[in-house]
Amino acid sequence: MRIAIVDESAARASVIQEGLASLDDCEIFVVTERRGLVARIGEIAPDIVLMDLGNPSRDVLEEYFAVSRALARPIAMFVDESDDETIAASIDAGVSAYVVDGLAANRIKSLMDVAVRRFNAFARLQSDLDEARGRLADREAIDKAKRILMDSRGLPEPKAYAEMRKAAMDQGKKIAEIADAIITAHKLMGGK
């Protein structure tokens, strides 16, 4: 497992490293420089990112939230104190675990596990949502293409669908792809 520790303080980073000392087969990278953080994390390609921010200003928090949005990795963020607004912003930014005043070596492993599990659960939900949205968009395109065929060729709905399905089978495409082609052709011919 590749773990990136992001902390401007080497002393605080060592607390996290101490908490990870018992892990076998793990590479730990400590990043202390804020400039170019996303690129540096990209080079490391970690499985998880542990950020210890101590008591950051709003600007620093926003900067790290922007980093977490760009990473698409489990992130556990440690801060000394917080408020409801900051917690909400961290969740919106994709932080998997937001730990207030909880940086202790003996807690790092369990907090890291929580961050990974939350990230994976959220990723599954996001994937399911994206798939459902895709199916809905396909269904809407198919319905629109059926209406175009029904209006332009005077076909009943079952016949319009059957023609699209046959074209999809003949061309080895999905019916939604045929529907998109019908919609595009209709627009090119001056339809709406």
From TrEMBL:
Q: Which InterPro entries match?
A: ANTAR (IPR005561), CheY-like_superfamily (IPR011006), Sig_transdc_resp-reg_antiterm (IPR008327), Sig_transdc_resp-reg_receiver (IPR001789), WH-like_DNA-bd_sf (IPR036388)
Which residues are annotated with the PTM 4-aspartylphosphate?
52
Q: Which UniProt keywords apply?
A: Phosphoprotein
ANTAR domain: which residues?
122-183
Gene3D superfamilies from the UniProt entry: 3.40.50.2300, Winged helix-like DNA-binding domain superfamily/Winged helix DNA-binding domain (1.10.10.10)
Cross-referenced SUPFAM superfamilies = CheY-like
In its keyword annotation, does this UniProt entry include Phosphoprotein?
yes
Q: Which Pfam families match?
A: ANTAR
Q: Does the keyword Phosphoprotein apply?
A: yes
Residue limits of the Response regulatory domain? 2-116
Name this polypeptide is given: ANTAR domain-containing protein
Q: Which organism is it from?
A: Novosphingobium anseongense
